[in-house]
Design goal:
- This protein is mainly alpha-helical.
- Helix content is about 70%, strand content about 0%.
- It is built from four helices and no strands.
- α1 crosses α2.
- The longest helix is centred in the C-terminal third of the chain and has 23 residues.
- The radius of gyration is 27 Å and the shape is elongated.
- The structure holds zinc ion.
């Protein structure tokens, strides 16, 4: 069996790279492998501080959503009834 030399998961018989890794390799050919490596490290790899920011943001979104659900604004119902009575 021949495996892709980059992902080492897909089987390849004709070329060294599978279809997905060929795309990655083409990007590396254009931008350079160091640039691609830097982008992957900066975007995909998070340190503990950055992970905590993400956790804090998700918790805030959940809290805001719960607050929105608890505050039921029924003013639209009275407005809607008012409109109906006017039109009739
Ligand atoms: Zn591959």
């Amino acid at each position: 069996m021949f495996y892709c030399v980059l992902c080492e998961k897909e089987t390849c018989y004709v070329s060294k790279f599978c279809d997905d890794c060929r795309i990655i390799k083409n990007i590396m050919n254009v931008y350079g492998y160091k640039e691609v490596k830097d982008i992957l490290e900066k975007v995909c790899i998070r340190n503990e501080k950055q992970r905590q920011y993400k956790i804090d943001n998700v918790e805030k979104v959940i809290e805001d959503k719960v607050d929105d659900e608890n505050q039921t604004d029924k003013s639209y119902i009275t407005r809607s009834k008012h409109k109906q009575s006017k039109s009739i």
